[in-house]
Amino acid sequence: MNDFFTFNFSQTYKKTFSLIILLCSFTSYAAEQAEEIFAQLTPSLYQIKLIDKASGEKSSIGSGFQISSDGIIATNYHVISNYARHPNKYRIEYFDHLGHQGSLTLKSVDVINDLALVQREVKSEMDFFVLSKGAPHKGEKLFSLGNPHDLGMIVVPGTYNGLKKESFSERIHFTGSINSGMSGGPVVNNQSEVVGINVATSGNQIGFLVPHDKLVNLFNAYKSSPPADIKRQMAEQLMASQDKLMTTLLNSPWESKPLGEKGIIPIIDVPFIRCWGESNADKTDALILAAVANCSLDENTYLSSHLFTGSIEIEFRYMQAKNLSDNKFYYLYQQQIARAGAGNRAGKDDVSEYQCNHDLVKPDNVNINNKAIFCTRAYKDFSGLFDVLYLGASVDKKQQALVSHFTIAGVSQKNAQAFTRRFIEAVSWE
Amino acid sequence: MGVNNMEIDTTKVQDEEIMAIDHLTTSPTIIIEEISRGHKMLHRYKLSKESITIGRGYDNDVILSDPHICPNHMHIDFVQGTWVVSDQNSINGCFLENPKSKKHNADQHIINDGDVITVGKSQLRILFIDHPVIPTVHFSAFESFINLMRQPIALFISMTLFISIAGGLGYLSSPIESNYSQFFVNAVGMAIVFALWPAGVALVSHLTKHDARTMAQLGISFVFFNLMWFSDFLDNVVAFNTASNSLITLAAAVLPIILAFCLFWLNCYIGFHMTARRRVIVSMSITALLFGGTYLVQYSHKPEFNPRPQYNATIMAPTFLLAPSSSINEFIDDNNVLFEKASKEAIRDK
Question: N or C: which end of chain B has fewer CB within 10 A?
Fold first, then answer.
């Protein structure tokens, strides 16, 4: 019972960048085609390495591909994220199919779509990958290129399965093994046009790609006006992205649903917020009957290995005392709300410590009286962005309790306040 | 007991000594007190003789065992209405102790009331029979309170109360249904641990040749332990009913410190003879040590960066909900300050 009752607000990072290697068998036709594509494209493929200046050794590796004759190479932001955050500590290098090395300069990033543009020096015009004009059709055979686990460049055939469902930031669902190290590599159709960029995997042949149009947008924006400062560019992108997300959330319908016998909670009706439920109704020896509903945005923005942002967690908990005195019920209830934590990973260099405030809050329009706790911490590099946490605990019923909680990572003050207000107003007793 | 404490307080008496100088006694009765270097009285002699012998020898009127004193060290003689010191060619001499100037030889010195004479490593204070005494001190309210609390029945009640509260809190915070006797055993164990403090104080006062007064120490301590529970409860009610940064919260936080100080003060009052000033200093020091030490330990364990929010989540049953609630607007407005504070901290620590 203890386990069940403990608030599990621990950080979850569902997006991983490396998983199991699976072999895939395709028809011999596909194999021949793959061979041809590989031979044709390999001069424009690169392994991208981040070299730690002090030790001279590589700290991360990924793949990249040239998209212009003057040496612009596309890769994932997360491949070069350490450089973007600490440009003085690292340098970026490429390693081409002939084994030549050279240095790269960071030109532009899209942190939301996990893309980056780097540039190598070129003496003469070079071959490059052509970006596709249109999206592939479902079931179309695609070829993913990259250098998994530093094993050498490979080509992996797979299938286009449309855009990932219930996702705020668009991702292509690619059935084929993408492995760590292939991040930033291109995925091409059989005309050798880039339709996506390797970005993540969920294992078992489930891979995710950034759609090529995101790269087209980034490249076009770069050609028209290159960003002066990468950090500022990132801050602007984060600010715009949270604004888009929060506006969507605040303008979507919030459906009232019952929780337990007496609680009313809001469920935000957007496809990318997914909810799960659990209760201990089967445990007869539990002192408190509890029902929990959890909703979250299952994606977050990777800024560095210890700074994730953009996540949202919402949790509701209804509790009903079974044969307990009021005081004992409240004693146990207090233990449930004592240990809420951040929803995202962030370190000392990234954020301030949390500042908290608590008060008794009774919304005018609904019949609930809450102990309300609100905490926030500010981002050090992206001023105007905050992580916020709210915890509301009803204190007006002797034998029932309703806990409402959310965390939002990387949000502006205005949006956080608007969301908090809406959230408090939406939680009530029947 | 508390009354006797005062006689050692020589600093107060000294002012009044000056008045006594004018009418020196003509009676050949004198009081000689053997005092320690801390001016605590070790022995008192009241002698009615015209010549008093002082020394290590057993034929003296005042026998001192200090090996630095000669067998026949000095005399004090009543000559023409005054008492005069005469050194009997002692090896280490006799000196007049004077807080204002250096000590000087006491041979042939005409004694004033309250003079302190050093012989060897011992000190003698000489008083005349009309030496003024400080006014009688009433039994303080504490005395009757202490006497009440040390009664077995009162002690039993406070310990029972303590055990019930400790057991009750154990029961309340237990997440599973358990045997009541378990909470009782834990609570009794806790009472025994807490009883170590008054028992320890009583032991120290016994070892320092004071009255142990164990029952009084126990009685008073448990009254205060119970008051601490109460203050804890009050603290929770306040935290539950008020918003962050409320002044009442601060006041509630000071209460346990005041209670601890009072407890230590009473411990000193019961167990030791000391001046009022020293008692305050000792109690303040122990309180500071206790709370300052706790704070230091917490401070030293504080991580450089805490990724978890620190908030006060005190909630209590609706019965204890006394304060009116704020509106959402007020809450949201208050939170604006947090954003400012966090932003400032982010810029400062960058």
Answer: C
Burial B275-310 (b: 16+ CB within 10 A, else e): eeeebeebbeebbeeeeeeeeeeeeeeeeeeebebe
- β-strand pairing of A193-203 with A58-66: unpaired
Across the interface, do B309 and A356 touch by the CB < 8 Å criterion? Answer: yes
A–B interface: beta-carbon pairs under 8 A? 180
Note the pLDDT tens digit of each residue in B312-350: 999 999 999 999 999 999 999 999 999 999 999 999 987
Residue of A nearest to B333 (CA): A417
A270 in B contact zone (CB under 8 Å): no
Q: What angle do CA A160, A162, A164 make, to 5 degrees?
A: 120
pLDDT at A293: 95
Q: Name residues 317-336 of chain B within 8 A of A (Cβ).
A: 317-319, 321, 323-328, 330-332, 334-336
A364: DSSP letter: S
Which residues in chain B are contacts of A332 at CB distance < 8 A?
173, 175
Interval A82-134: pLDDT, tens? 999 999 999 999 998 888 999 999 999 999 999 999 999 988 888 899 999 88
In this structure, what are the phi and psi dihedrals at residue A129, rounded to the nearest 5 degrees? Answer: -75, 140
Residue A350 near residue A293, CB atoms below 8 Å:
no
Q: Nearest to residue A144, comparing CAs of A17, A250, A45, A234?
A: A45
Is the CB of B342 less than 8 angstroms away from the CB of A420? Answer: no
Beta bridge partners of A194: A131, A188
Inform me whether the C-beta atom of residue B172 falls under 8 Å from chain A C-beta atoms. Answer: yes
Instruction: List CB contacts (< 8 A) between A323 and chain B.
Output: none
In the numeric block, the tokens 């905490």 are attached to: A375
Q: CB within 8 A of A46, min separation 6: which ones?
A: A63, A64, A65, A66, A73, A94, A95, A96, A120
Q: A335: which chain B residues are within 8 Å (Cβ-Cβ)?
A: 173, 175
- In angstroms, how far apart are the furthest CA atoms of chain B? 94
Distance from the Cα of residue A287 to its chain's centroid: 38
Check CB contact under 8 Å for B311 and A417: no
**H-helix segments, B208-327:** 214-241, 247-271, 276-301
- pTM for the full predicted model: 0.79
- Helices B247-271 and B180-207 cross at an angle (nearest 10°) of 50
DSSP, res B9: -
Phi, psi (rounded to 5 degrees) for A301: -95, 125
Rounded CA separation A141/A136 (Å):
9
